[in-house]
Amino acid sequence: MTQQKNRPHVLMMSEITADGKLTLKKGASSKILMKHMAHETEILLHTTRAACDAIMVGSETIRIDNSFLTVRMVPGKSPLRVIPNRKGDLPLSSNIFKHDAETVIAVSETAPAERIEAIRAAGAEVIICGSDHVDLPHLLSVLYERFGVRKMMVEGGPTLNWHMLHHRLVDEIRLIHLPFIVGGDDTPSLVGGMHSESEDDMIRLELRSNYLCGTNLVTEYEVLYPDEA
User: Fold this and answer.
1) Strands (E), 9-49
2) Cut 0.90: pTM above it
3) 90-147 per-position pLDDT tens digit
4) 173/160 Cα distance (integer angstroms)
5) Which residue among 100, 174, 185, 191 is least packed, with the fewest CB closer than 10 Å?
6) CB 173 within 8 A of CB 205
7) In whole angstroms, how far apart are CA 164 and each of 105, 223, 226?
8) Which residues pair with residue 210 across a beta bridge?
9) What gap in Å lies between CA 214 and CA 150, rounded to an integer?
């Protein structure tokens, strides 16, 4: 796909069950399923983080998983942690506020000034972009121009994944397939958001690679948006 010149190249990476789910059930941490990944796949995840300038996850992922988003198991620098959080209301006790990596919290203009100051006091940088919601295209432009982010990975939940794809900000997808079926009508899947009105709205993927990593199948795709397929 043709990439805007003022934003990073974006890789979306996720573990996913055979029935397309991210977690055991709604509100459950993804770490429950991730602990069943092969060790070789854990290495792949951390190697990918080390190869990126930034890593982005959604606010709900931080609230539920309390992720560190750092590089472990392999050598390399931890990427810049980027969390869109429009009201700036993440718990300041979250692991992303530890000083083991740099953190950027992206808020909207609706975020109270006292919350912004509290986040800065916790050691994170704040980017204000968007009037009511975080403007993701603008955020990626700021990350590119001000922070020098050239490659970013997204380990988002379904809401962030949908918004990133909706704004055509994802270039490639890497999926770690877990050999489980968990079911559940409301169990989070890879992408949430609004449904497609017709098949013309579907975002198509071109398979670029597939391989076994330990006991896990890994598939890699290029993203093809409707008028580019």
Assistant:
1) 9-17
2) yes
3) 999 999 999 999 999 999 999 999 999 999 999 999 999 999 999 999 999 999 999 9
4) 14
5) 185
6) yes
7) 17, 12, 15
8) 219
9) 29
